[in-house]
Amino acid sequence: MANLTDYQNDLRKIERNIAEIGSPSDTDRATRRAYGLYQHAALTGRLDEFTAAEAAIAEAFDQVGSWPDLCLVKANLDMKFHRLQGAKRALAMAPGLTESFAGRTVWADIHLQEGRYRQAKQMCEALIAENRTWDNLARLAYWESKFGRIEDAEVLYTEAEEEITAKEMRGYAWVQLQKGLLHLRRGRYEQAAVHYRRAADAYSGYWLVEDHLAELYGSQGKYDEAVALYERVLAENSRPELQQAFGELYAAMGEECEAEKWFDKALAGFLEASANGGVHYYHHLVDFFSDVREDASAAVAWGRKDFELRRNFGTEAALAWALYRNGQIEEADEMMDYALGSGVQDGHLFAKAATIKAAAGRSHESAQLSGRAFALNPHHQGFHVHRS
């Protein structure tokens, strides 16, 4: 038998733990089973597994009530799918959970998703002062990176690595991916590759590492390598955002027929998931109808739905771009000003803002934004993956 990868080994361990729990007969077993299914789904990224985990959580609630650990699992699952109100309700179900360390960690993410950037940073800093966990160091690093403090972000990610134990190599690999993204979003491909390779060496066989490597190879024009990786990833995980990325890679290669095949699959997946309550795909549908298969009115409709759920620089910029595509220049210009007013530093954001400003007759601002986009990432117009 071939040696299992680190990823496969972790899946086997979780599966054994779930099997040993058996039919949950008490609070502890019900919670551990629900958490195990959630943990397995978070590792594979498969949407059907998240559905099974959610069903197990609901069953456990019926059986044991609002147990704090169970509420926390539910809150974290809701956050993965941008269901912010659901996460808030889950935290509120158990007395004291909102004020707990774990509860405030979830609230730091909620603040960021709802555009309360200062509160998000303050909460991260308070959590780190209380207990210097690697995940909260990484949260603060992400905040710093979004607001252009790349050196500070790198230092924090490095500090996060130092807090990770030998038993948490998946966490180490994830931090390496984030450090790689810092460089990739600045067009520094060789530096990104160093971190991605470290992630692959630290935690073998992980589809998420291969997904990031595929984006890097596509950005570099190493199409054969990128195609091989996407084929491997999609054989295991058919998430529609991965299908869209593969389609966009084929489009960059000039392979329009192959691109359309994957776009068909992606759109069907986005729409099916959204019809079943998958609000996390609203953002992807705005992007899809704005730039992949242009349907500006549909892009605006999805953009407004996402904006109503969570107002932050990402939803503001996406809606602004959809409005621009739909010829609603004045509203697009106003909405983009909100996104720029957040202080976020991003080459793709600045490039789209430059286009909108030019259409609005604000040529000086457009030129400035174009210059800032190029300064941040000289390759911002090349192949890249939409990651929300």
Could you characterize what this model shows?
With 388 residues, the protein is mainly alpha-helical. It has a domain at 271-388: Tetratricopeptide repeat domain (Serine Threonine Protein Phosphatase 5, Tetratricopeptide repeat), CATH 1.25.40. It has 21 helices and no strands. Helix 18 (313-325) packs antiparallel against helix 19 (329-341) and helix 20 runs antiparallel to helix 21 (363-376). The longest helix is centred in the last third of the chain and has 20 residues, at 256-275. The protein is globular and about 65 Å long. The mean pLDDT is 95.
Give the CATH topology of the domain at 271-388. Answer: Serine Threonine Protein Phosphatase 5, Tetratricopeptide repeat
Portion in strands: under 5%
**Helix fraction by DSSP (H/I, runs of at least 4):** over 70%
What is the architecture of the domain at 271-388 at the second tier of CATH? Alpha Horseshoe
Write out the CATH superfamily name of the domain at 271-388.
Tetratricopeptide repeat domain
**Main beta sheet:** none
Please, what is the average pLDDT? Answer: 95
**Radius of gyration of CA atoms, rounded to a whole number:** 21 Å
Regarding quaternary structure, how should these chains be classified? single chain
Top keywords for this entry?
single chain, 388 residues, mainly alpha, Serine Threonine Protein Phosphatase 5, Tetratricopeptide repeat, 77% helix
